[in-house]
Design goal:
single chain; mainly alpha
Protein backbone atom coordinates (compact mmCIF):
# COMPACT_ATOMS: atom_id res chain seq x y z
CA UNK A 1 0.00 0.00 0.00
CA UNK A 2 1.09 3.61 -0.55
CA UNK A 3 3.18 5.07 2.26
CA UNK A 4 4.61 8.49 3.06
CA UNK A 5 4.12 11.19 0.48
CA UNK A 6 2.45 8.79 -1.94
CA UNK A 7 -0.28 8.10 0.59
CA UNK A 8 -0.69 11.83 1.24
CA UNK A 9 -0.96 12.45 -2.50
CA UNK A 10 -3.58 9.76 -2.98
CA UNK A 11 -5.69 10.96 -0.07
CA UNK A 12 -5.35 14.64 -1.00
CA UNK A 13 -6.37 13.88 -4.58
CA UNK A 14 -9.28 11.79 -3.35
CA UNK A 15 -10.52 14.69 -1.21
CA UNK A 16 -10.29 17.13 -4.12
CA UNK A 17 -12.25 14.75 -6.34
CA UNK A 18 -14.76 14.24 -3.52
CA UNK A 19 -15.41 17.95 -3.08
CA UNK A 20 -15.76 18.86 -6.77
CA UNK A 21 -17.99 15.84 -7.39
CA UNK A 22 -20.23 16.85 -4.50
CA UNK A 23 -20.43 20.45 -5.70
CA UNK A 24 -21.44 19.21 -9.15
CA UNK A 25 -24.50 17.65 -7.50
CA UNK A 26 -26.04 21.10 -7.08
CA UNK A 27 -26.89 20.98 -10.79
CA UNK A 28 -28.64 17.62 -10.56
CA UNK A 29 -32.44 17.52 -10.86
CA UNK A 30 -32.54 16.64 -7.15
CA UNK A 31 -30.18 19.45 -6.24
CA UNK A 32 -32.21 22.02 -8.17
CA UNK A 33 -35.42 20.54 -6.79
CA UNK A 34 -34.14 21.11 -3.26
CA UNK A 35 -33.46 24.76 -4.08
CA UNK A 36 -37.01 25.23 -5.36
CA UNK A 37 -38.54 23.26 -2.48
CA UNK A 38 -36.47 24.28 0.53
CA UNK A 39 -35.98 28.04 0.44
CA UNK A 40 -37.11 30.93 2.66
CA UNK A 41 -40.41 31.79 0.97
CA UNK A 42 -41.42 28.17 0.29
CA UNK A 43 -40.79 27.18 3.90
CA UNK A 44 -42.66 30.25 5.13
CA UNK A 45 -45.63 29.20 3.02
CA UNK A 46 -45.59 25.82 4.74
CA UNK A 47 -45.30 27.60 8.10
CA UNK A 48 -41.86 26.15 8.67
CA UNK A 49 -38.59 27.89 9.43
CA UNK A 50 -36.15 27.71 6.53
CA UNK A 51 -33.04 27.79 8.73
CA UNK A 52 -34.31 24.85 10.77
CA UNK A 53 -35.34 22.73 7.78
CA UNK A 54 -32.09 23.50 5.97
CA UNK A 55 -30.13 22.54 9.08
CA UNK A 56 -31.94 19.21 9.27
CA UNK A 57 -31.18 18.74 5.58
CA UNK A 58 -27.48 19.28 6.29
CA UNK A 59 -27.59 16.78 9.17
CA UNK A 60 -29.33 14.25 6.93
CA UNK A 61 -26.78 14.79 4.15
CA UNK A 62 -23.95 14.25 6.60
CA UNK A 63 -25.56 11.02 7.76
CA UNK A 64 -26.04 9.99 4.15
CA UNK A 65 -22.40 10.72 3.46
CA UNK A 66 -21.44 8.66 6.52
CA UNK A 67 -23.53 5.80 5.11
CA UNK A 68 -21.65 6.08 1.83
CA UNK A 69 -18.41 6.27 3.81
CA UNK A 70 -19.17 3.05 5.64
CA UNK A 71 -19.61 1.27 2.32
CA UNK A 72 -16.34 2.69 1.00
CA UNK A 73 -14.61 1.77 4.27
CA UNK A 74 -15.59 -1.87 3.81
CA UNK A 75 -13.98 -1.88 0.38
CA UNK A 76 -10.93 -0.09 1.79
CA UNK A 77 -10.52 -2.85 4.38
CA UNK A 78 -10.60 -5.43 1.59
CA UNK A 79 -8.03 -3.44 -0.38
CA UNK A 80 -5.80 -3.21 2.69
CA UNK A 81 -6.03 -6.96 3.24
CA UNK A 82 -4.97 -7.59 -0.37
CA UNK A 83 -1.98 -5.30 0.13
CA UNK A 84 -1.41 -4.00 -3.41
CA UNK A 85 1.92 -2.34 -4.09
CA UNK A 86 2.25 1.43 -4.28
CA UNK A 87 2.50 1.29 -8.06
CA UNK A 88 -0.67 -0.76 -8.39
CA UNK A 89 -2.70 1.40 -6.01
CA UNK A 90 -1.70 4.68 -7.66
CA UNK A 91 -2.06 3.24 -11.17
CA UNK A 92 -5.59 2.02 -10.45
CA UNK A 93 -6.46 5.37 -8.90
CA UNK A 94 -5.10 7.11 -11.99
CA UNK A 95 -7.20 4.94 -14.31
CA UNK A 96 -10.30 5.55 -12.18
CA UNK A 97 -9.87 9.34 -12.33
CA UNK A 98 -9.08 9.33 -16.04
CA UNK A 99 -11.99 7.03 -16.78
CA UNK A 100 -14.34 9.30 -14.85
CA UNK A 101 -13.09 12.35 -16.74
CA UNK A 102 -13.59 10.69 -20.11
CA UNK A 103 -17.04 9.49 -19.06
CA UNK A 104 -18.03 13.04 -18.10
CA UNK A 105 -16.83 14.23 -21.49
CA UNK A 106 -19.02 11.63 -23.18
CA UNK A 107 -16.16 9.57 -24.65
CA UNK A 108 -17.78 6.26 -23.76
CA UNK A 109 -21.25 7.25 -24.94
CA UNK A 110 -22.35 7.69 -21.32
CA UNK A 111 -24.98 10.34 -20.86
CA UNK A 112 -24.89 12.18 -17.56
CA UNK A 113 -26.74 12.14 -15.27
CA UNK A 114 -26.99 8.42 -14.51
CA UNK A 115 -29.07 6.67 -11.82
CA UNK A 116 -32.07 8.82 -12.67
CA UNK A 117 -33.98 8.75 -9.41
CA UNK A 118 -35.73 11.75 -7.85
CA UNK A 119 -36.69 12.20 -4.21
CA UNK A 120 -40.40 11.96 -3.35
CA UNK A 121 -41.56 15.58 -3.26
CA UNK A 122 -44.93 14.55 -1.85
CA UNK A 123 -43.16 14.44 1.50
CA UNK A 124 -43.26 18.25 1.48
CA UNK A 125 -47.04 18.20 2.00
CA UNK A 126 -47.21 15.09 4.18
CA UNK A 127 -44.50 15.54 6.82
CA UNK A 128 -42.94 18.12 9.09
CA UNK A 129 -39.95 20.16 7.98
CA UNK A 130 -37.44 18.28 10.15
CA UNK A 131 -38.55 14.95 8.67
CA UNK A 132 -38.37 15.78 4.97
CA UNK A 133 -35.26 17.88 5.56
CA UNK A 134 -33.54 14.92 7.21
CA UNK A 135 -34.91 12.40 4.71
CA UNK A 136 -34.10 14.39 1.59
CA UNK A 137 -30.67 15.23 2.99
CA UNK A 138 -29.82 11.58 3.63
CA UNK A 139 -30.81 10.51 0.13
CA UNK A 140 -28.78 13.25 -1.52
CA UNK A 141 -25.81 12.93 0.84
CA UNK A 142 -25.55 9.19 0.21
CA UNK A 143 -24.48 10.04 -3.33
CA UNK A 144 -25.66 6.90 -5.11
CA UNK A 145 -29.37 6.94 -4.28
CA UNK A 146 -30.44 9.78 -6.59
CA UNK A 147 -29.22 11.39 -9.82
CA UNK A 148 -25.45 11.12 -10.33
CA UNK A 149 -24.24 14.10 -12.34
CA UNK A 150 -20.60 13.12 -12.66
CA UNK A 151 -18.59 9.92 -12.79
CA UNK A 152 -16.44 11.69 -10.23
CA UNK A 153 -18.75 10.17 -7.60
CA UNK A 154 -17.58 6.72 -8.65
CA UNK A 155 -13.99 7.98 -8.77
CA UNK A 156 -14.44 9.18 -5.20
CA UNK A 157 -15.40 5.67 -4.16
CA UNK A 158 -12.46 4.18 -6.05
CA UNK A 159 -9.79 6.59 -4.81
CA UNK A 160 -10.94 6.49 -1.19
CA UNK A 161 -11.06 2.69 -1.31
CA UNK A 162 -7.58 2.46 -2.80
CA UNK A 163 -6.20 4.42 0.14
CA UNK A 164 -6.61 1.20 2.08
CA UNK A 165 -7.63 3.21 5.15
CA UNK A 166 -11.12 2.62 6.54
CA UNK A 167 -10.95 5.83 8.59
CA UNK A 168 -10.04 7.95 5.56
CA UNK A 169 -12.73 6.25 3.48
CA UNK A 170 -15.32 7.04 6.14
CA UNK A 171 -14.10 10.63 6.34
CA UNK A 172 -14.28 11.01 2.53
CA UNK A 173 -17.91 9.88 2.57
CA UNK A 174 -18.72 12.35 5.34
CA UNK A 175 -17.03 15.18 3.43
CA UNK A 176 -19.04 14.30 0.34
CA UNK A 177 -22.30 14.34 2.26
CA UNK A 178 -21.47 17.56 4.07
CA UNK A 179 -20.66 19.41 0.85
CA UNK A 180 -23.83 18.08 -0.78
CA UNK A 181 -25.80 19.25 2.23
CA UNK A 182 -24.40 22.76 1.99
CA UNK A 183 -25.98 23.02 -1.46
CA UNK A 184 -29.40 23.77 0.05
CA UNK A 185 -28.02 27.00 1.53
CA UNK A 186 -27.30 28.34 -1.97
CA UNK A 187 -30.94 29.46 -1.99
CA UNK A 188 -30.75 31.18 1.41
CA UNK A 189 -31.22 34.62 -0.17
CA UNK A 190 -34.02 33.57 -2.50
CA UNK A 191 -36.82 35.22 -0.52
CA UNK A 192 -39.18 35.63 -3.46
CA UNK A 193 -40.12 33.70 -6.62
CA UNK A 194 -38.31 36.31 -8.72
CA UNK A 195 -35.11 35.94 -6.71
CA UNK A 196 -35.33 32.16 -7.05
CA UNK A 197 -35.79 32.39 -10.82
CA UNK A 198 -32.72 34.61 -11.09
CA UNK A 199 -30.71 32.16 -9.02
CA UNK A 200 -31.78 29.18 -11.13
CA UNK A 201 -30.99 31.13 -14.29
CA UNK A 202 -27.45 31.84 -13.05
CA UNK A 203 -26.96 28.21 -12.14
CA UNK A 204 -28.21 27.11 -15.55
CA UNK A 205 -25.64 29.39 -17.18
CA UNK A 206 -22.87 27.76 -15.15
CA UNK A 207 -23.91 24.17 -15.85
CA UNK A 208 -21.64 23.50 -18.82
CA UNK A 209 -18.74 25.32 -17.20
CA UNK A 210 -19.00 23.23 -14.05
CA UNK A 211 -19.18 20.02 -16.07
CA UNK A 212 -15.93 20.93 -17.81
CA UNK A 213 -14.30 22.05 -14.56
CA UNK A 214 -15.06 18.73 -12.88
CA UNK A 215 -13.87 16.79 -15.93
CA UNK A 216 -10.69 18.87 -15.93
CA UNK A 217 -10.03 18.22 -12.25
CA UNK A 218 -10.51 14.49 -12.81
CA UNK A 219 -8.19 14.56 -15.81
CA UNK A 220 -5.41 16.39 -13.96
CA UNK A 221 -5.87 14.10 -10.95
CA UNK A 222 -5.47 11.07 -13.18
CA UNK A 223 -2.30 12.47 -14.74
CA UNK A 224 -0.74 13.34 -11.38
CA UNK A 225 -1.54 9.94 -9.93
CA UNK A 226 -0.24 8.21 -13.05
CA UNK A 227 3.09 10.04 -12.96
CA UNK A 228 3.38 9.25 -9.25
CA UNK A 229 2.79 5.55 -9.90
CA UNK A 230 5.66 5.15 -12.36
CA UNK A 231 7.13 6.82 -15.46
CA UNK A 232 5.44 4.27 -17.68
CA UNK A 233 2.08 4.82 -16.04
CA UNK A 234 2.61 8.54 -16.45
CA UNK A 235 3.06 8.04 -20.20
CA UNK A 236 -0.01 5.81 -20.38
CA UNK A 237 -2.17 8.28 -18.45
CA UNK A 238 -0.95 11.16 -20.61
CA UNK A 239 -1.79 9.25 -23.78
CA UNK A 240 -5.23 8.36 -22.44
CA UNK A 241 -5.90 11.95 -21.48
CA UNK A 242 -4.74 13.37 -24.80
CA UNK A 243 -6.62 10.69 -26.70
CA UNK A 244 -9.77 11.47 -24.79
CA UNK A 245 -9.50 15.20 -25.44
CA UNK A 246 -8.86 14.57 -29.13
CA UNK A 247 -11.87 12.25 -29.35
CA UNK A 248 -13.99 14.91 -27.66
CA UNK A 249 -12.96 17.57 -30.19
CA UNK A 250 -13.62 15.21 -33.11
CA UNK A 251 -17.04 14.30 -31.73
CA UNK A 252 -18.02 17.93 -31.22
CA UNK A 253 -16.86 18.94 -34.70
CA UNK A 254 -19.03 16.22 -36.21
CA UNK A 255 -22.03 17.31 -34.16
CA UNK A 256 -21.63 20.92 -35.29
CA UNK A 257 -21.56 19.99 -38.98
Amino acid sequence: MPTGWQNDLLESTALIVTVVSAVRGIWSPCGLSMLTSINPFAEKGRQHRYALTASWFLVGALLGGATLGVGIAVVAVVVHSLGPSIEVALALASLAALGASLADLGIFGIQMPVLRRQVNERWLDQYRGWFYGLGFGWQIGAGLTTYVMTAGVFATVALASLSGSWSFALAAGCVFGFVRGLGVFVGARARSPMALRKLLSRLDGLDRTMRLVVAGVLLVSGLVLGVSASPWMGVVSALLGLGGLAATRIHRSRVLR
